[in-house]
Amino acid sequence: MTLSIIIPVYNTEAWLEKCVLSCLGGDSEIILVDDGSTDGSPALARKLAGEHSGITVLSQENAGPGAARNAGLRMARGEYIWFVDSDDTLEPGAVEWACRTVREHPCDYISLSARNGGSGPLRNVLPEGAGPEEVFRSLRWLDCDTMYLWRRSFLEEHGLAFMEGVFFEDSELIPKVLFLAGSCFVSNNPVYNVTVREGSITRSRSGKKSRDRIAVAEALLAFRDGNVREPADRAVFDQRICVMVNRALLGMTVFGRGEKREFNSWLAGKPGLLEVFRRSGIARYRFEHRLFRLSGGNFVAVFSFLNLFKGLKA
Questions:
Q1: Which H helix or E strand runs over 33?
Q2: What is the pLDDT of residue 29?
Q3: Model confidence band, residue 203 (pLDDT cutoffs 50, 70, 90)
Q4: Which of 11, 245, 284, 286 has the fewest CB atoms below 10 angstroms from its CB?
Q5: H or E stretch including 44?
Q6: For residue 81, which of 19, 178, 2, 20 has the smallest C-alpha distance?
Q7: Pairing mode, if any, of strands 3-9 and 89-90?
Q8: pLDDT tens across 245-277, in order?
Q9: Cα-flanking dihedrals φ and ψ of residue 257, to 5°?
Q10: Contacts of 186 (CB under 8 A, 6+ apart)
Q11: CA–CA gap between residue 270 and residue 89 (Å, rounded)
Q12: DSSP conformational letter for 140
C-alpha cells in the first residue's frame, strides 16, 4: 500500500464527513483515531467506515493530538504517511496526486502546499527542486505536520514520533525530521485546504498552551545539544526555540498580573532557553535578552514592549 492517511478526531462532528470524503481514493487507507470525543464524531466515524472500504476506526481515551497521531502511526501499513486534521479537506484528486508523486519521487518526505480557507494565500511555499539541507535552513518551512508526506520507514529508522501530552507537538517533531532527512521533494501544488475557525488549538490561548510551548522549546534544545554540530544547523534550531518562547510569551499577554508573575518566575528557572537568546545570531533576540536582564526577568512585559515595533519580527 502506498499511502496511509491518519486523521486524529476530537469533537469535529460538523467537519468530519467532508474531511473523510475528500481523502478517499488512490492506493491508500484512512485511519480515524477518535481521541475520546464527546460529540457524535465516534458514531459518524463508524458510519463512514461501514460505507467505505479502506477506513479503520481506532478509539482511545482522550490523550491529546500527539498520542492520537502516534496511535495511528503504529497501525499504518502504507509506505508513506499523510496526517490530515479532521476539520480540513484535501483538493479533488489530491490522494491520487500523492500516490503518484511518491512513486515518481521516492524520498524521505514530500513538502506540499496548502491554502487557508480553500482560497486564501498559499502556505509552505518553498523553491521547487530544493534539497533537504536547503529546506531545513531556509527558515520558511511550516512546523505543521499536515504539510508533509513522510516515508514511514524513515520515521521508524530514526525512532521519530510525536511528543505526547502537549499542544503544538508538530512544532517539536518537524525540525528534527527535516534535519535528519537525507532526501526530499518540494511541490507547491496546493492540495490541502486549511479550515480557519475560532476556537481551534492554534487560534486560542491558555496558560497550558504557553507552558507546552516552553516544553517544546526545551525538547528542541535537548535535541540540538545532543545531535546538531554545524553552526548553520544549530542556528536553525536556535531560531525555532526563540520563536516558541516568544509565542509562549504572546499567549501570556492576555492574563492578569498574578498569572504573568508566576509564568515569569517559572521561565526564569530555565537558563538554557534564555542562553539561546543571548547567543542568537538574530539581533532581535539578543536585544530581547538584554531587556530580559534589565527588567529583572519580566519576560512577558519585555515581549509586549517589543511587539509594538513591527520591524522587530519574532
A1: strand 28-35
A2: 98
A3: very low
A4: 286
A5: helix 41-51
A6: 2
A7: unpaired
A8: 999 999 999 999 999 999 999 999 999 999 999
A9: -60, -40
A10: 110, 111, 126, 127, 128, 129, 130, 135
A11: 39
A12: -
**CA 229 – CA 175 distance, rounded (Å):** 15
The beta strands (E) that lie in 163-255 are given as 184-194
Instruction: Give the span between the Cα atoms of 241 and 247, in whole angstroms.
Output: 10
Q: Closest Cα partner for 169 from 72, 67, 85?
A: 67
Distance CA 78, CA 131 (A): 24
The answer to whether 223 touches 238, Cβ cutoff 8 Å, is: no
What one-letter code names the amino acid at 20? V
Dist CA 22 CA 191 (whole Å): 11
The residue among 232, 249, 261, 228 whose CA lies nearest residue 314 is: 249
pLDDT number for residue 129: 87
> In Å, what is the CA distance from 77 to each residue of 4, 173, 198, 238, 305?
7, 21, 34, 35, 50
Angle between the N-to-C axes of helices 283-294 and 231-252, in degrees from 0 to 180, rounded to the nearest 10:
50
Distance CA 126, CA 115 (A): 14
Task: Take residue 267 and report the three cell numbers written for it.
Answer: 521561565
Task: Please say if the pLDDT value at position 8 is more than 90.
Answer: yes
C-alpha cell at 218: 526545551
Q: Cell triple for residue 170? A: 508538530
Alpha-carbon distance 169 to 166, whole Å? 6
Residues 6+ apart with CB under 8 A from 132: 108, 178, 181, 182, 183, 184
Q: Give the separation between CA 199 and CA 257, rounded to whole angstroms.
A: 24
Degrees, nearest 5: CA angle 304-300-270: 140
